[in-house]
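2024-03-11 09:14:02 DEBUG pipeline.ingest accepted 1 chain
2024-03-11 09:14:02 DEBUG pipeline.ingest length=344
2024-03-11 09:14:03 DEBUG pipeline.predict start
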Amino acid sequence: MIVHKNQVVTLGQFIIERQADFPYAKGELSRLLRDIGIASKIVNREVNKAGLVDILGEAGEINIQGENVKKLDVFANEQFISALTSGGECCAVGSEENEHVVDINSLVSKNAKYVVAIDPLDGSSNIDVNVSIGTIFSIYRRTSLSGPGTLQDFMQRGTEQVAAGYVIYGSSTMLVYTTGRGVNGFTLDPSIGEFCLSHPNMKIPKEGNIYSINEGNYVHFPDGIKKYIKYCQEDHKPSNRPYSSRYIGSLVADFHRNLIKGGIFIYPATAKSPKGKLRLLYECNPIAFIIEQAGGKASNGFKRILEIEPKDLHQRTPLIIGSLQMVEKAEDFMLKFSPAEVQV
């Protein structure tokens, strides 16, 4: 695709121009990405006026993760499922907010080729305090032949993703996605209601100077992570240390900053969460796909995230993700100081 200088390229235009990369899709994947983009605009509208309407606070429910469900969580989940249902290109949805796979049982969807795993509103604990939140999504080709989508359709390694992305609702709203041919970012222009290409061919620096981790849990971290944090804090001018500590507490926001500036995000296993806390299918796999396409790396400390075999819709995993050299250094510390904690 040739983009002329100063030419505005919308998400819809970009997707159509890239459609030739997927001759097997016959337009379905393009329409599916379009549906996700439309739903994200609706969610963005509600996020931006959250202080003006009754969608702040908790909905009085507990989701499958044992977490309080925020009202905006429920709204976002409903919007994305509705958009994916009406679009007809998706036969099932795996959502953080639903215990089981949501079967999209409609005449147009029953033989659709794709399933979508989604975290409709990542970082929702920050909703009430006006901190950036986001949406994370992952798209797979179904493994079943026809009919309703099944849990088995989702039990695929991250290497099998055909597309993945996230939306960050912040000072500006951005949609970043990959189909395995680089990473591109689109910023929402509210004056025309369109996502416009703003960050073409995104690449993460191989080395950065930011580390992102909740140091409040330091005493519960594996020894390898404790040692790596101390390494980040050491004064060593040749390697530009000490690094800066930046932690927002919203995965999308922390990841987005590090993707642009270079850095590492770590959410390790702890004594309280020995298998990690982030979900493999709809949090870790999508952003791992993105970071690898941007030249970075994603690991659980010992193994490539995209090669982990999923066993459960809400499976959790430790996560170390970001600039290639920083992640490899963290892995070195894990292998040296936490060999008994190997996660597969």
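2024-03-11 09:14:41 DEBUG pipeline.report The CA atoms of residues 93 and 224 lie 36 Å apart.
2024-03-11 09:14:41 DEBUG pipeline.predict end
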